[in-house]
């Protein structure tokens, strides 16, 4: 009895001592080797958004390999890039902690963020050290109004994306002889959905669309029957959904079951409508759905290679891969231009120069005074023949929009 | 024994403070800051759930109210951060009193009380998610302004030291509670509320006082959370995660004990970080290891870590006596 007690206690002490020593020693473990430039990637590797984080990681790793194979950072004597991954665990405070960890581990620049709430705290943590942070596809307008000099955003803001979405909708509808006149908005009641619903309610009527109903639902939603029954009785020409993947799948499948066939489904950051997973699992429900979202330039040959790389891992391509691939490319260009890994020099290089946008359809990336990429642009995609095609704007289009989709 | 515990806890806080002053890497400092915020939340929970036996699943209601009050008062009304902090604590306490009044007047206890607190937190989350003045689903940001008056510091060690002071004050509050008549009434109603009532304890009044105090302390943690991360939304402030963290830290550390919440928060969050560094890049492995260790912890220490050590000591002295 006595022996047992003693051994347990010793083990407990060892465990606690080992744990404490690791906490204190961990920051020092990952230094030494040179010449290496460390770039941090903050993504949700675990938690609710783990799938997105994984796709982002694939893109970033692809870019790192490409740059290193081509001789590394030439301005620093061919220094190789080492990618450090910070897991934001799909929540805001872990995002800040991941950034702190990356800084401690020696990252000279950090990219990523994914969701607006995570990007908010993660970039804030980086800004404390004036460590340059480039946000990927997190869209909240508030991210770039904080006056943080070392924070930049590669992708378009929500406001800018909504402008593009509406302009393109009008163009597509006009080309179809104003086929759609009535609109129903179906949205989740969180950040994504309620923000979009409010904006659409203000902006659609002046463009000649009549909003027949705005229907909200919680996330997660288990059943969409009532929503679809309502849609059936309203019979709108166009449905504008704004929700996450699972809910959209549920909505689209329920609409298919109840044979609700509007002239079009037009989403902004709909997720599912730009998701190969959705297209592959529910091809009939997905057919014809349009989305305005971040998307890789289909005419860029590297984009096809990224698609292959994702496919090889047994996953489905989504925008996270090209956008994070491109972010690493921009970070590498900034280091080349700054000829230094010093934070101040990197922030200055990012603020003053133009960059090649990798595989994103942004032309040349140029950050304005707030840190926003002025040339960032979402693309219109549509599910056509079981594949996702870019249908608008024309310079990136792989095929023409099919609208009305059920016409 | 209790005094020694208090002194140990205070010495631990002083060591943390000194470590911070000597210089800690940013990630460790950030972890310690978060640990102390969770400690405060768990200390708040412990006043009601630990000492009073009124387990709440909805301390997010108080945490979120503090966080939102702190943010809204500063950003929308331009009120000084310290004044906002006081108002946040008062509002949190008020929400606690309101929920307590409705629940205790109806005689709710046990799982019914736990569920009603959970429901209130959910209602507040949905409201905060929809109202414009709480920023709706987009959440709210506190403007970055460094200075003592703004309770924001370019050197975050100052913020950490302030947090340590608050945790120390909460320890004194718990110590006072353990020694006061009010604390004795609270523990009495935890053990057997009908017997306590028969002995003349006004159990409604004691429960009301306990929930108000508990809510105020948890709201303080919410205020400091908002001030540290400078961003909140409905899911962060009123999400069930914080209710779980609060009761988890207190229960694993030792519910109804002075230092239980501190031990629980430090061990749980410390363990999370340690397992993360051992995961070797395999996504989620750290969470699996964390879960296994937690299961073992709960299996071998059903009365919390504090209870485990107390048991060990008792068994040793019994063995020594026998020898």
From TrEMBL, chain A:
Keywords: Amino-acid transport, Signal, Transport. InterPro entries: BCAA_transport (IPR051010), Leu-bd (IPR028081), Leu_Ile_Val-bd (IPR000709), Peripla_BP_I (IPR028082), TAT_signal (IPR006311). Residues 37-378 form the Leucine-binding protein domain. GO terms for biological process: amino acid transport. Pfam families: Peripla_BP_6. It comes from the Bacteria. SUPFAM superfamilies: Periplasmic binding protein-like I. Gene3D superfamilies: 3.40.50.2300. PROSITE patterns: TAT. Belongs to the leucine-binding protein family. This is Amino acid/amide ABC transporter substrate-binding protein (HAAT family).
TrEMBL record, chain B:
It is found in: Cell membrane. One of its GO terms (molecular function) is branched-chain amino acid transmembrane transporter activity. Keywords: Cell membrane, Membrane, Transmembrane, Transmembrane helix. The chain crosses the membrane at residues 83-104, 158-177, 210-232, 244-270, 282-305. InterPro entries: ABC_transp_permease, LivM-like. It comes from the Bacteria. One of its GO terms (cellular component) is plasma membrane. It is a multi-pass membrane protein. The keyword Transport does not apply. This is Amino acid/amide ABC transporter membrane protein 2 (HAAT family). It comes from Neorhizobium alkalisoli.
């Amino acid at each position: 009895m006595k022996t047992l007690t003693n051994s347990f206690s010793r083990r407990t002490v060892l465990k606690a001592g080992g744990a404490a020593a690791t906490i204190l020693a961990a920051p020092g473990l990952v230094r030494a080797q040179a010449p290496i430039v460390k770039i941090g990637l903050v993504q949700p590797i675990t938690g609710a958004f783990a799938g997105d984080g994984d796709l982002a990681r694939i893109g970033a790793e692809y870019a790192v390999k490409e740059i290193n194979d081509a001789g590394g950072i030439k301005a620093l004597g061919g220094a190789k890039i080492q990618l450090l991954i910070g897991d934001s665990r799909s929540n805001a405070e872990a995002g800040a902690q991941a950034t702190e960890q990356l800084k401690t581990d020696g990252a000279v620049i950090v990219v990523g963020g994914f969701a607006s709430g995570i990007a908010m705290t993660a970039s804030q943590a980086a800004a404390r050290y004036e460590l340059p942070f480039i946000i990927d596809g997190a869209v909240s307008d508030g991210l770039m109004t904080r006056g943080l000099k070392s924070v930049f955003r590669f992708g378009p803001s929500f406001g800018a994306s909504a402008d593009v979405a509406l302009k393109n909708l009008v163009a597509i509808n006009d080309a179809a002889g104003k086929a759609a006149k009535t609109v129903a908005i179906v949205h989740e009641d969180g950040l994504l959905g309620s923000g979009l619903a409010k904006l659409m309610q203000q902006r659609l009527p002046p463009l000649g669309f009549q909003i027949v109903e705005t229907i909200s639902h919680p996330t997660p939603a288990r059943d969409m029957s009532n929503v679809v029954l309502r849609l059936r009785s309203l019979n709108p020409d166009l449905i504008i959904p704004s929700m996450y993947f699972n809910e959209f799948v549920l909505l689209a499948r329920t609409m298919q079951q109840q044979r609700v066939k509007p002239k079009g489904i037009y989403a902004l950051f709909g997720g599912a409508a730009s998701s190969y997973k959705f297209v592959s699992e529910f091809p009939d429900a997905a057919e014809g759905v349009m989305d305005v979202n971040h998307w890789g330039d289909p005419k860029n040959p590297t984009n096809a290679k990224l698609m292959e790389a994702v496919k090889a891992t047994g996953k489905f391509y989504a925008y996270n891969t090209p956008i994070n691939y491109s972010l690493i490319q921009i970070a590498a260009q900034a280091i080349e231009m700054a000829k230094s890994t010093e934070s101040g020099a990197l922030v200055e290089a990012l603020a003053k120069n133009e960059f090649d946008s990798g595989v994103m359809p942004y032309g040349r990336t140029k950050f304005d005074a707030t840190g926003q990429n002025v040339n960032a642009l979402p693309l219109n995609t549509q599910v056509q023949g079981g594949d996702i095609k870019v249908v608008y704007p024309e310079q990136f289009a792989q095929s023409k929009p099919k609208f009305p989709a059920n016409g | 024994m209790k005094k020694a515990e208090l002194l140990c806890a205070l010495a631990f806080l002083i060591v943390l403070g000194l470590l911070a002053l000597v210089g800690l890497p940013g990630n460790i400092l950030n972890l310690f800051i978060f640990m102390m915020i969770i400690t405060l939340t768990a200390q708040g929970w412990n006043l009601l759930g630990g000492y009073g036996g009124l387990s709440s699943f909805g301390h997010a209601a108080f945490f979120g109210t503090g966080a939102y009050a702190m943010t809204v008062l500063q950003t929308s009304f331009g009120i000084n951060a310290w004044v906002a902090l006081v108002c946040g604590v008062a509002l949190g306490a008020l929400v606690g009193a309101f929920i307590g009044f409705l629940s205790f007047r109806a005689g709710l206890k046990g799982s019914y009380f736990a569920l009603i607190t959970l429901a209130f937190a959910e209602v507040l989350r949905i409201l905060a998610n929809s109202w414009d003045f709480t920023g709706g689903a987009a959440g709210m940001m506190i403007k970055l302004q460094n200075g003592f008056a703004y309770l924001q510091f370019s050197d975050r060690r100052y913020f950490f030291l302030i947090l340590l002071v608050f945790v120390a004050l909460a320890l004194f509050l718990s110590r006072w509670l353990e020694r006061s008549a009010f604390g004795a009434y609270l523990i009495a109603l935890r053990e057997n509320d009908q017997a306590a009532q028969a002995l003349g304890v006004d159990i409604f009044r004691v429960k009301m006082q306990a929930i108000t105090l508990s809510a105020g302390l948890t709201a303080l943690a919410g205020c400091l959370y908002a001030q540290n991360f400078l961003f909140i939304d409905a899911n962060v402030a009123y999400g069930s995660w914080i209710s779980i963290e609060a009761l988890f830290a207190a229960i694993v550390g030792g519910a109804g004990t002075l230092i239980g919440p501190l031990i629980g928060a430090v061990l749980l969050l410390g363990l999370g970080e340690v397992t993360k560094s051992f995961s070797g890049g395999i996504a989620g492995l750290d969470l699996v290891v964390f879960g296994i260790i937690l299961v073992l912890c709960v299996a071998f220490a059903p009365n919390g870590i504090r209870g485990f050590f107390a048991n060990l000591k008792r068994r040793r002295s019994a063995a020594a006596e026998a020898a």
